[in-house]
Write a structure and sequence with these properties.
Elements (H helix, E strand, L loop, with lengths): L15 H27 E2 L2 E2 L1 H6 L1 H29 L5 H20 L1 E4 L2 E3 L12 H9 L3 H12 L14 H27 L6 H9 L18 H14 L1 H20 L2 H13 L4 E4 L15 E5 L2 E12 L6 E7 L10 E7 L14 E6 L9 E11 L12 H6 L2 H29 L1 E2 L2 E2 L4 H29 L5 H26 L9 H10 L8 H13 L1
C-alpha cells in the first residue's frame, strides 16, 4: 500500500549537499578551539595531567561528545556525496541527511545528551556559538515536522528492504547482508524471545550453523582456515545477527577477540594451532579479563599466574565472563610479575578447559564457576569464575614472552569496539522495525498510532540516528581495513551506537504503551538487550574518557 504524502509542504531544503558541506567548517573550527582551550586547562608542564583531566572530567567528556558529533556529520556528508555520485541519493536518503544535520547541529548549539540527565554544552568548554549561514539554515529548516512526516511516509513504502535508505556499501557487502538477514529471519527471530524468557543458552545447533556459514572465521586469513574477509563484512554480519538477537550477534565477538589476539601477538606455532580451530568453530573461546574489584581498571587486576616447571598455575577470581561454561579455551589475563601493580606485569594465556554441561558446567580441575543472572543479553550467560591451582601449559603463554598481556589486549580494542558498534546498530534496527510494525497495526482514536506526529516523529529519528551510527561504524571499519589507526573513530562509533540503540529501544517501547511493559512483547527483551551496550567493551564514561585523552594528547 502506498501512503500519499503529496499534500505535505515541500520538506526538503534546496541545495542540501552544498548546505551540508558549508556547515562543516564552522563546527570543525569550533571543535579545534574547544580542544585547544581544554588542553590548556588540563595540562601541567606541557603535558596532559591525569589529575587535572579528572577535575575537568565533565568538560572532557563534553569534548568527546562534541567531537563524536562533528565526526558523525563529516561521515554523513561523505556518505551523501558518495551515493549521490552513484545515483542512490533519493528522497529518503536526502531527508535522512537533512534531519540528521539539522538535529545534530542544533544539539551542538544547544546541548548534546550524554545520558538522560547529563547534557554537554559549549559553555562547559568555555565557548559560545551563534550559528549563521548554512548551519543556521539547517538548524531552522532541517529537522522539521514536515521532514519527519515525509520520511515516515517513505519508510512505510520501504517494506522488504533491509535498511532505511541506501547504506553506501558495495554490492558484495549487501549480498552478505541479505544472506545473514535471511538466516536471522528464519532461524533466530522466531526463537529469540523464547530463549530470552526461558533464560536459555543459544542452542548448539545454531552455533553449528553459524560455523558452517563461516561466522567464526570471517576475518581470519585464508591461510589459517578463515574466509579472509574485511572488518566491514564483520560489521554487516554482526548487524544482521544482532538484529535477530544480540546473543547470536555476539557469538562471533568471542572468536573475533581471540583471533585478533593470536594474529597480533601469537607465535607462528600458536597461529597454526589455534586459528584454524577457531575459524571452523571446532573450539569456542571466551574472554576472561574482568575481576570483581577492577571493572574497567584492567591494569590493577590481581589474578596470579606462577611458573610451575614449564607450565603455569593460576589463582584468582574473574567475573562477567560471557559464555564461560561450554567453551574450550579462555583468553585469560593474569599477573605473572608479582612485583608489579599495574599493566606492566600482565600476561595473556590461551588457557584450555573442558566444555561444561548443564549438570556440570565447570568440570576442569582447578576451576569453579557460578552463573550471574542478568536482565538481558542472556543467550550465552554470564559467570563468576574461581581459579585455585588451575594449570596452563607453558606453550599457551601468548607470544611466548611474559609481561605483554595488556599490550596484546590493547591491540584488539579497535576491532572489538567496531564490532560492538555493529551490534548496537542491529539492536537499534530491531527496535525500529518492531516499533514501526506496532505503530502501524495498533489503532487508537480511529486511526493507526503511526498517524500521530509524536509517534511517527520517534520512528523518523530512529531511522536517522541509525544511519548516522552506521556511517560512523562503516568508516571505522574502512579505516581498520586500510591499516589506518582508528581507535578514536571506533570509540566514537561505539559511544554513539550504544546511545542510539538505547534511545531506539526506549522509544519503541514507549510506542507500545502498556504492552511494551509486558514480557510477552519482544520489545521488552530488546530494551533489556540494548541496556548492556552502554556498559560492556568500555562503559560510556570510560569510552568518553579514552576519546578525550586521544583528542587532547
Amino acid at each position: 500500500m502506498a501512503h500519499d504524502g503529496a499534500d505535505m509542504p515541500n520538506a526538503i531544503l534546496p541545495d542540501l549537499l552544498q548546505l551540508t558541506a558549508a556547515a562543516l567548517p564552522p563546527v570543525e573550527a569550533l571543535l579545534a578551539e574547544a580542544t585547544t582551550g581544554l588542553r590548556a586547562r588540563v595540562s601541567r608542564d606541557g603535558k596532559v595531567s591525569g589529575a587535572a583531566l579528572e577535575e575537568h572530567q565533565f568538560a572532557a567528556h563534553a569534548l568527546s561528545w562534541f567531537a563524536t558529533y562533528v565526526e558523525s556529520l563529516r561521515q554523513m556528508r561523505g556518505w551523501a556525496g558518495r551515493i549521490s555520485e552513484t545515483g542512490a541519493l533519493g528522497e529518503m536518503e536526502t531527508l535522512i541527511l537533512q534531519i540528521g544535520f539539522g538535529e545534530y547541529l542544533a544539539q551542538i548549539a544547544g546541548g548534546i545528551p550524554m545520558s538522560q540527565g547529563e547534557v554537554a554544552r559549549l559553555s562547559d568548554l568555555a565557548l559560545s556559538w551563534a550559528p549563521e549561514g548554512a548551519a543556521a539554515t539547517l538548524i531552522a529548516g532541517g529537522n522539521t515536522p514536515a521532514a519527519r512526516s515525509r520520511l515516515v511516509v517513505l519508510m512505510r513504502d520501504n517494506h522488504g528492504r533491509a535498511t532505511v535508505g541506501a547504506t553506501g556499501l558495495d554490492e558484495d557487502l549487501e549480498m552478505i547482508r541479505d544472506q545473514f538477514r535471511r538466516y536471522a529471519e528464519e532461524r533466530v527471530v522466531p526463537n529469540a524471545h523464547d530463549w530470552h524468557l526461558r533464560d536459555e543458552l543459544i542452542p548448539m545447533g545454531i552455533i553449528e550453523e553459524l560455523a558452517e556459514l563461516g561466522v567464526f572465521g570471517l576475518t581470519i586469513p585464508e591461510e589459517f582456515g578463515g574466509l579472509g574477509l574485511s572488518k566491514a563484512s564483520m560489521v554487516v554480519v554482526s548487524e544482521e545477527l544482532s538484529r535477530g538477537y544480540i546473543g547470536v550477534g555476539s557469538l562471533g565477538t568471542r572468536s573475533e577477540i581471540a583471533a585478533e589476539l593470536i594474529l597480533c601477538g601469537g607465535t607462528p606455532e600458536q597461529k597454526a594451532h589455534w586459528l584454524p580451530k577457531l575459524a571452523s568453530g571446532e573450539i569456542l573461546p571466551t574472554a576472561v579479563f574482568t575481576e570483581p574489584n577492577t571493572g574497567s581498571d584492567l591494569g590493577s587486576l590481581r589474578t596470579r599466574a606462577v611458573k610451575d616447571g614449564d607450565d603455569w598455575t593460576v589463582t584468582g577470581n574473574k567475573t562477567w565472563i560471557t559464555h564461560a561454561a561450554r567453551t574450550h579455551v579462555m583468553t585469560l589475563l593474569a599477573r605473572t610479575d608479582p612485583e608489579t601493580t599495574d599493566y606492566r606485569g600482565l600476561s595473556m594465556f590461551l588457557a584450555e578447559k573442558t566444555p561444561g554441561t548443564d549438570a556440570e558446567p565447570f568440570p576442569t580441575p582447578g576451576m569453579t564457576g557460578g552463573e550471574i543472572e542478568v536482565l538481558g543479553y542472556r543467550g550465552m550467560k554470564e559467570y563468576e569464575l574461581g581459579f585455585d591451582g588451575f594449570k596452563v601449559k607453558g606453550e599457551n603463554l601468548l607470544g611466548g614472552v611474559p609481561g605483554q598481556g595488556f599490550k596484546q589486549l590493547m591491540q584488539t580494542f579497535e576491532s572489538a569496539r567496531i564490532q560492538t558498534a555493529a551490534r548496537a546498530i542491529g539492536v537499534a534496527q530491531s527496535a525500529l522495525e518492531v516499533g514501526m510494525k506496532y505503530a502501524e497495526d495498533r489503532k487508537q482514536f480511529g486511526k493507526g498510532l503511526i498517524e500521530f506526529p509524536r509517534v511517527s516523529g520517534k520512528l523518523a529519528m530512529m531511522a536517522v540516528e541509525i544511519m548516522i551510527a552506521r556511517q560512523l561504524t562503516y568508516h571505522s571499519a574502512w579505516q581498520k581495513d586500510h591499516d589506518k589507526r582508528c581507535d578514536l573513530e571506533a570509540g566514537m562509533a561505539k559511544l554513539l551506537g550504544a546511545r542510539v540503540a538505547w534511545a531506539c529501544a526506549d522509544n519503541a517501547l514507549q510506542i507500545h504503551g502498556g504492552n511494551g511493559f509486558a514480557l510477552e512483547y519482544q520489545i521488552s527483551r530488546i530494551l533489556c538487550d540494548a541496556r548492556i551496550l552502554n556498559i560492556f567493551e568500555g562503559a560510556a564514561e570510560i569510552q568518553a574518557q579514552v576519546i578525550a585523552r586521544r583528542l587532547l594528547d
